[in-house]
Write a structure and sequence with these properties.
The protein is an alpha+beta fold. The chain has helices spanning 5-70, 75-110, 116-147, 154-240, 255-324, 331-360, 372-382, 384-389, 409-426, 457-461, 478-488; strands at 368-370, 392-397, 405-407, 431-439, 443-449, 492-498, 502-510. Strands 2-4-5-7-6 form a five-stranded mixed β-sheet. It has a two-stranded antiparallel sheet with strand order 1-3. Helix 1 (5-70) packs antiparallel against helix 4, helix 3 (116-147) runs antiparallel to helix 4 and helix 9 (409-426) runs antiparallel to helix 11 (478-488).
Length: 512
């Protein structure tokens, strides 16, 4: 069962609370036990011990009073002492024994279960002492009866005194044992309480340390559980600063991990969207540039085209006239060379104006199913002599049964011718030119690869911008026009190049 983040944190702190609660409950329980122990000793055994000591002292006083009777020669004095003893000792002793038994029964009400048999034993002993004092009273009355006579019978007195002494010894021994038993019990309980207090203190300290450890562990575990939140906040801050490369990489199944993965997906989507917006902005900028170039080119072509036609026509007339005229030796050839140079420049300017015109007013392609390998063969055959003179080896890698593409043959030939001439110019010392076709699922891919000097990343970034060129005398319109033509076909033109390893242009055209 997967627990939520809040539930896990709650359970962690619940464990801490339960631990501290258990420590507190243990402490309270032990304090209560100690309180009962103190009450048992102070209000129970100590009081019973005092009662036993008072009974023993009273009994010893009674023994001394009885012995004092033998030292009195006066009958009246003996009789007065006997009356005093009868009046004082029996009720006082009965009261003390009753108080002791009542206290023992009171102690029985709050004594721990382990002490109940001992307290009941005390109550029984006090009851036995009460019976023994009844026997003591009868023996004492027999002695008092002999001593109260005017002439005591010594034989009867010796016999009754022997019985009384035996009962007194038994009672003295019972009282001494009772007092000693209580004192030993008090000592045992006090020693046990001290030992238990020591163990309780150690246990409370140990449990408190364990509880603190559990609390620190729960705090550390909560901090570790919430650590991805800090990472998430940092990622959000990076996104807010425009850094869409932020990837949190938080693992797990809780809410924070799910949120982090959604955040990573959002950052990736934003990065993709930003790249798309950037590409669209660049495309829009190129479109605006092309539009501006188109407007300027249309005006320049309009202003330059007609004068160039007139100049070209007049130069042709001059050439015809020079062909019929007669000049001194070598004078006519120089004039004809000059007119040929003018004609070449006029043709070059006418070609430039045609390029500007095509940029300004690109014709709508007339799309028909075309055999792209046949078009490539035609362009390569047209440029065969030109490439051979430049020392360029052409390698054709056409896939058999390459499907037809939707294209305007004339515009497609213009694109291929431009790319082949660029490749030739990139290999001034000669090289290898590879032209290949590769069918794809929805389009056909054409690769034009040379072994020239290649291009840097900065050059590739501006490669398809109008008027950007690295060649002397270049117009910077060839690749821009080629890309425009392919986009109008629903295809694309891309470039891959490594400095020192050549350049590869990849064309994609939709299948017919």
């Amino acid at each position: 069962m997967k627990l939520s983040l809040a539930t896990r944190i709650f359970l962690g702190y619940a464990v801490v609370l339960v631990t501290f609660g258990a420590v507190s409950l243990f402490s309270v329980t032990e304090l209560h036990r100690n309180r009962l122990e103190i009450r048992l000793v102070s209000q129970g055994y100590l009081q019973l011990s005092q009662d036993a000591a008072e009974l023993e002292a009273l009994h010893n006083n009674q023994k001394k009073d009885t012995e004092r009777l033998f030292d009195q020669n006066s009958v009246e004095t003996r009789r007065a002492l006997i009356r005093l003893t009868r009046l004082y000792f029996p009720p006082h002793m009965a009261q003390r024994l009753g108080t002791a038994r009542a206290r023992a029964r009171e102690v029985l009400s709050f004594a721990p279960s382990g002490e109940v048999p001992f307290v009941r034993g005390l109550d029984t002993r006090f009851g036995e002492l009460a019976h023994q004092y009844e026997a003591y009273g009868r023996a004492a009355e027999a002695v008092y009866a002999v001593l109260a006579a005017d002439a005591p019978d010594h034989v009867a007195l010796a016999r009754t005194m022997g019985d009384l002494s035996q009962v007194e010894s038994t009672i003295s021994r019972e009282l001494s044992v009772l007092r000693t038993t209580l004192e030993n019990r008090i000592r045992e309980r006090v020693d046990g309480a001290e030992e238990r207090e020591r163990r309780t203190g150690l246990a409370i300290i140990t449990l408190s340390v364990m509880a603190i450890g559990v609390g620190l562990g729960a705090t550390a575990w909560s901090a570790r559980t919430l650590r991805p939140v800090r990472t998430l906040i940092e990622g959000v801050s990076r996104i807010a600063r425009g850094d869409y490369n932020a990837q949190l990489g938080v693992r797990g199944d809780d809410e924070v991990a799910v949120l982090a993965r959604e955040f990573d997906q959002m950052a990736h989507s934003l990065q993709t969207r930003e790249a798309q917006i950037k590409a669209q902005a660049e495309a829009l900028m190129r479109a605006e540039q092309l539009a501006a170039v188109g407007r300027i080119s249309a005006q320049i072509v309009h202003e330059v085209r007609n004068p160039l036609s007139s100049i070209g026509l007049n130069v042709e007339l001059l050439q015809d006239a020079l062909a019929e005229a007669r000049f001194p030796a070598d004078a006519g050839s120089e004039a004809r060379d000059l007119l040929a140079a003018v004609t070449g420049e006029v043709d070059r300017l006418t070609e430039v104006t045609e390029q500007y015109l095509r940029m300004a007013r690109p014709p709508r392609p007339d799309l028909e199913p075309e055999d792209i390998t046949q078009v490539l063969d035609g362009v390569l055959e047209f440029t065969r002599e030109e490439l051979a003179r430049a020392g360029v080896e052409v390698v054709r890698e056409f896939t058999p049964d390459t499907p037809r593409v939707l294209a305007d043959e004339g515009q497609l030939r213009q694109v291929f011718l431009n790319l082949l001439r660029n490749s030739r110019e990139a290999m001034p010392e000669g090289g290898r030119l590879r032209v290949a076709t590769l069918p794809r699922e929805r389009d056909v891919e054409v690769t034009v690869q040379d072994t020239g000097g290649g291009m840097t990343a900065e050059v590739r970034r501006h490669l398809f911008e109008p008027f950007f060129t690295t060649k002397e005398g270049g117009t910077g319109l060839g690749l821009a026009v080629s890309q425009q033509i392919l986009q109008a076909h629903g295809g694309s033109l891309s470039c891959q190049s490594i400095p020192g390893q050549g350049t590869t242009f990849v064309l994609r055209l939709p299948r017919a």
